[in-house]
Amino acid sequence: MARLALFDLDGTLVDRQAALSDAVTALCHTHNFDAPTEQRLRTELADRANPNDFVRLRDAFGLAVTAAQLWQEYVQLMATAVTCRPAVLEGLAQLRAAAWTIGIVTNGASDIQRAKLAATGLTNLVDGVAVSGDLEIRKPDPELFAVAASRCGHDLANGGWMTGDNPTGDIGGGHQAGLRTIWLRGRPWPTDLPAAHHVVDDVTEAITILLNETSE
Prior knowledge:
alpha/beta; Rossmann fold; 2 domains; six-stranded parallel β-sheet; 6 strands
């Protein structure tokens, strides 16, 4: 039976921060936004982005362009800028070849998260995706992990793995869902959160751990 490997998207499989910087720069250049507007965009969108952010920003700065247009431009710019390293894509392909089933569990608006998946080629390498924006539930809610597992043809009762960079959302949520976890080190670790099963500095190391599990 295939094993289940769930992954976070932003900050784990793809470099959101680099893409965000490029997208905001391009958006501001297109509309000739001034420096305060650009800085506000970078601050507001640092952790996540959704259409309501652009409603607030448009109103705050009295921008002429509609919030809906800004959001659609931002989605396209992020899709153009976001990358998934070849080593990560190859690692996921190796996991599938080793009979792993791969899913993605991600918080965010549906259109932008799915645009990233399509643009990076990840869509063709995963078996199921659960996006919080589709379901109105967010990590660390274990239900989002259950949806991802189900879309991969799995039941969380049979176990699996979760890899991500967010201690609370990915690792804490993974624990609640009954999954073994691999933390991509970087963010501060909450003192009251149980440790991840493994800690790595790069997602390719996590993939290697999973491949080694296959051979055991």
